[in-house]
Amino acid sequence: MGNARTKGQASLELLITLSFGLAVLLPVATLAYIQVSSANISLSGIESQQAASKLSSAATLVGSEGPPAKQYVEVTVPPGVTNIFVGNIIGGVGHEIIFEIVSATNTSDVGVYTPVNVSGNLGGLASQGTYLVNVSAQSICPSNPSQECVYMEPVV
Hints:
Elements: H1 2-65, E1 70-77, E2 81-87, E3 94-102, E4 107-120, E5 129-138, E6 149-154
Parallel strand pairs: 4-6
Antiparallel strand pairs: 1-5, 2-3, 3-4, 5-6
């Protein structure tokens, strides 16, 4: 009878020890997950900044050469990007390239200024991957025919 009681006590002690270990590890694992998620969002922001800068540099070069200059640019879209605005947020002619990044906690915009008028439609590139973008100087901008601009569109 004493042997069975000892086994039961040992099992209960092991169960209590494992429960205590899980109670300590669960918050640590949760904090680690939050930190990794935050790091991934920061990395997406940095990669978006690099992609926007690459497009801005190409737009500046093509814009300085004037129509009919064009250049193909390979752009890597990081995870978390939900939209890419060229010109301005409403799709007109402007001086910005904006990557919209969404995380579980917030939405942030990463933008780059361009010295030339830019416009385009890169909203279809809003999923992670590498894409080829046609950056071309236009004497008549497709989004505003009264202006010259550098127009950006994905190569299909």
